[in-house]
Design brief:
The chain is mainly α. Helices cover 67% and strands 2% of the residues. It has helices at residues 4-11, 16-37, 39-42, 64-71, 93-99, 122-126, 134-161, 165-182, 187-201, 204-213, 218-245, 249-257, 260-270, 275-280, 284-297, 304-308, 322-326, 328-354, 362-387, 389-409, 415-442, 449-470, 480-496, and strands at 48-50, 84-86, 104-106, 111-113. The strands form 2 sheets. It has a two-stranded antiparallel sheet. Strands 2-3 form a two-stranded antiparallel sheet. The longest helix is centred in the first third of the chain and has 28 residues, at 134-161. The protein starts with a helix and ends in an 18-residue tail after the last helix.
C-alpha cells in the first residue's frame, strides 16, 4: 500500500491513539476467559448418592448415617455407591434392619448432593451424574465445536464487513447466549446456548489482535498481541475469586455475562475501523477520516500532500478464503501453521487435563493455572522480539513435546517431578499459543489476514476437541497418550522452520501471485 507506512509514521507509530486502542481491546479478553473456563465452576461436581427417602416412611426418625447404611450398598473402597441403591421393599423397618436387602437397582428417585448450603451447578440442577455424566464433557466439546465454527465464520465476516464489525458482533452474541445459558430450563437448551456462545467467545482475541496489529508497525505488533493475551490470563485468575464468592451457578453466569453489555456500548462508541482494511476495500475517504482522527489524538498533523498520495497498490480485488488455497505460498503457510495450531492446542489441553498433582481445591488450582501463564506470555514476548517468531515458535513446540516424552521416563513413585515437568510443558504450550497469535497474522496479506487467522484458529479447535479423546488410548498402553502429546508438537516445531521470518518485516496488504 503506497505511502501507508509513511503516514503511520507521521500520525505516530505507537502514540496515545494506539495505546488507547490496545487498552480497550484488552478488556474483552477478561470476558473471553470467563466464557471459556466458566463451566469449570458452573458445571462443578459434588459427591452424591441415590435419594432413599422411601425408607423414612417406615422409620421417620432414622439418622442420616443409619438411613445410608440400610439403603446404600458399599463399593470396593468402602464408600457408598454413587449410582446404586438397595431395591425398595414393602417391609417394616425391623425386618429390614434384621435381614437387610440383597438386591440393588439404579437411582429411582433422584440424587442427594453433598453440596455446601446455597451452592448449585448444572450437575446438581440437571442431574448430570451416573448415566448422564458424559454430558459434562460433551458440553465442553460442543463449546469447542462452536469455537471451530466461529473461527472459520468470523474470519470471513471480518474480511468482508470490517475489523470493527467482527469484535462488536462477537461481543453481542457472547452476551446474548451467555445470559441465555443462565436461564436454560434443561441441559439440552444449555448445550445449544453453549455452542453459540462458543462461536463468538473464543474468537474475540483473534479479532482484537488483528485490529491492533493493523494500527501499528511490525516491531510493536507482538507487544499488542501479548498484552491482550496477558489480560486473558488475569481473567482466569479473577474467575476463581468471583466463582468462590458466588456458589449459585445461574447467578454466577449472569455476573460473568451481563457486564458485556456495558463493554459493548463503550466499544461501539470508541472502536475505530482499520485504515489498512478500508484502503484494501477502496474506501479511501473513510480511511483518511480515521487516519486524521488518529493523528489528532496523537497530537500530530499529517501533511495534506502525503494524504492525497495515499493509494492502493494495484487494482482492488475482493478476496475470499479459497484464494488462500489458490495462491501457492499462502497454501504452504496455511498447511504448516494449521498443523502447528492443531498441535499446540493438542499439547495445551492435553497437559491441562493431566496436571492434577497440586492437591489443592478447585479455586486455588484455577488461580495457579492462570498465574503460570503470565510469566510464560511475558517471557515469550521478550524472546520473539529478539530472536524472531519462527525460531521461538519452533523451540516452544519442541520443548513442550519433549516435556511430555520426559514424563514417560520418570518413575511413577515421583509424582512431584512429574507435576513439575507437566507444568513446564504447559508453560511452553502457553508460550507457543501466544507466538502463534503473533506470528500467524503477519504471514497473511491484509485482504486475507482475518480469513487466514480464522482458518488456523479452526485447526486449533480440532486439536482442542481431539485432545481429551487421546486419553482413551490409555486402555491399550499407558504411554500412548503422552507419546502422542510429545511427538505431534515436536514434528510441528520442525515444520515451522520451513516458514519465513516476519520479525520487523512490513505487513503485506495485497496477495501476490508467486
Amino acid at each position: 500500500m503506497s505511502n501507508f507506512g509513511e503516514i503511520l509514521k507521521e500520525i505516530g507509530e505507537f502514540g496515545l491513539f494506539q495505546k488507547r486502542l490496545v487498552a480497550a481491546l484488552c478488556i474483552p479478553s477478561i470476558f473471553v476467559a470467563f466464557d471459556v473456563f466458566g463451566q469449570v465452576f458452573t458445571g462443578m461436581s459434588f459427591d452424591h448418592n441415590c435419594n432413599t427417602d422411601w425408607i423414612l416412611e417406615r422409620g421417620p426418625n432414622l439418622t442420616e448415617d443409619r438411613q445410608r447404611n440400610l439403603t446404600l450398598p458399599v463399593n470396593k473402597d468402602g464408600k457408598y455407591e454413587s449410582c446404586k441403591m438397595f431395591t425398595p421393599v414393602d417391609l417394616d423397618l425391623e425386618t429390614i434392619e434384621a435381614y437387610g436387602i440383597n438386591t440393588t437397582t439404579g437411582c429411582l428417585d433422584g440424587w442427594d448432593y453433598q453440596a455446601p448450603i446455597g451452592a448449585s451447578s448444572t450437575v446438581t440442577e440437571f442431574n448430570l451424574v451416573c448415566d448422564k455424566s458424559g454430558l459434562i464433557e460433551a458440553s465442553q466439546s460442543i463449546y469447542m465445536a462452536g469455537y471451530l465454527v466461529g473461527a472459520l465464520t468470523y474470519g470471513s465476516i471480518s474480511d468482508r464487513f470490517g475489523r470493527r464489525f467482527a469484535p462488536l458482533l462477537s461481543l453481542l452474541v457472547l452476551m446474548t447466549f451467555g445470559v441465555g445459558v443462565a436461564f436454560s430450563p434443561n441441559i439440552y437448551v444449555f448445550l445449544v446456548f453453549r455452542f453459540f456462545s462458543g462461536t463468538s467467545g473464543g474468537v474475540m482475541i483473534m479479532n482484537a489482535s488483528v485490529l491492533a496489529l493493523e494500527w501499528t508497525i511490525p516491531s510493536n505488533a507482538a507487544i499488542c498481541t501479548q498484552l491482550i493475551i496477558v489480560v486473558y490470563s488475569t481473567g482466569l485468575m479473577t474467575l476463581s475469586g468471583i466463582a468462590y464468592l458466588i456458589p449459585n451457578w445461574r447467578i454466577l453466569q449472569l455476573v460473568l455475562s451481563c457486564p458485556v453489555l456495558l463493554l459493548l456500548g463503550f466499544l461501539y462508541w470508541f472502536l475505530p475501523e482499520s485504515a489498512r482494511w478500508l484502503m484494501t476495500q477502496g474506501r479511501k475517504e473513510e480511511a483518511q477520516k480515521v487516519l486524521e482522527r488518529a493523528a489528532k489524538v496523537n497530537g500530530r498533523k499529517v501533511p495534506d500532500d502525503l494524504m492525497d498520495k495515499l493509494t492502493i497498490e494495484g487494482k482492488v480485488k475482493r478476496r475470499n478464503m479459497l484464494d488462500i488455497f489458490r495462491i501457492p505460498y499462502l497454501r504452504k503457510r496455511t498447511i504448516i501453521m494449521g498443523y502447528n495450531w492443531c498441535a499446540v492446542s493438542l499439547l495445551y489441553y492435553g497437559l491441562s487435563l493431566n496436571v492434577g498433582g497440586f492437591g489443592l481445591n478447585i479455586y486455588l488450582t484455577q488461580l495457579i493455572f492462570g498465574f503460570v501463564e503470565i510469566p510464560a506470555n511475558l517471557g515469550c514476548l521478550v524472546l520473539v522480539q529478539h530472536f524472531g517468531r519462527r525460531i521461538c515458535h519452533a523451540c516452544f513446540m519442541f520443548f513442550g513435546g519433549v516435556a511430555c516424552l520426559v514424563i514417560l521416563a520418570i518413575p511413577n513413585d515421583l509424582p512431584v517431578v512429574v507435576t513439575i515437568m507437566a507444568v513446564l510443558g504447559k508453560m511452553t504450550a502457553t508460550a507457543a499459543f501466544s507466538t502463534a497469535y503473533i506470528y500467524t497474522p503477519e504471514l497473511y496479506p491484509t485482504v486475507l489476514r482475518q480469513n487466514g487467522v480464522g482458518l488456523n484458529s479452526m485447526c486449533a479447535r480440532v486439536g482442542g476437541i481431539v485432545s481429551p479423546l487421546i486419553w482413551l488410548l490409555e486402555v491399550y498402553h499407558h504411554s500412548i497418550p503422552m507419546l502422542v502429546y510429545g511427538i505431534v508438537p515436536v514434528a510441528a516445531g520442525g515444520f515451522c522452520l520451513l516458514l519465513p521470518e516476519t520479525l520487523n518485516v512490513a505487513l503485506q496488504d495485497q496477495a501476490e501471485i508467486k
